[in-house]
Design brief:
MvaT_DBD; elongated; two-stranded antiparallel sheet; 2 strands
Length: 121
């Protein structure tokens, strides 16, 4: 499509959207909603409340339906304990909170998982 044809198409879409916007502006229901919102926001500002605070006052369970911040989800989980393994062959220590430690995996591959677990202190 040529740039001129695309320009004309976008110009037509814009004209159509402007016509729809003008039609909505003259609609009494839209005017009433806009007036209500304007008065509500002024009232909230006058008393120092946010829309979220008003919603939580009117519907306390609405807060539970909102997505909780990631930090509160992580804080509810018990932190993993540090596991310490000591290799009796060379005295090397490994501290890990999970089983995805490279040295620990190498030891398990070489000596077997049960043997390495017996090295746990």
């Amino acid at each position: 499509m040529s740039r001129l044809a695309e320009y004309r198409r976008l110009e037509q879409q814009l004209a159509q959207q402007l016509a729809e916007l003008e039609a909505m502006k003259s609609d009494g229901a839209i005017q009433a909603e806009m007036d209500f919102e304007k008065k509500l926001r002024a009232l909230l500002g006058e008393y120092g409340y946010s829309l979220r605070e008003v919603i939580s006052i009117l519907d306390p369970q609405a807060r539970g339906r909102q997505r909780a911040p990631a930090s509160s989800e992580k804080s509810s989980r018990k932190p993993r304990e540090v596991k310490v393994y000591k290799n009796p062959h060379n005295g090397e220590l490994v501290q890990t909170k999970g089983g995805n430690h490279a040295v620990l995996k190498a030891w398990k591959a070489e000596h077997g998982a049960e043997v390495v677990e017996s090295w746990r202190q």
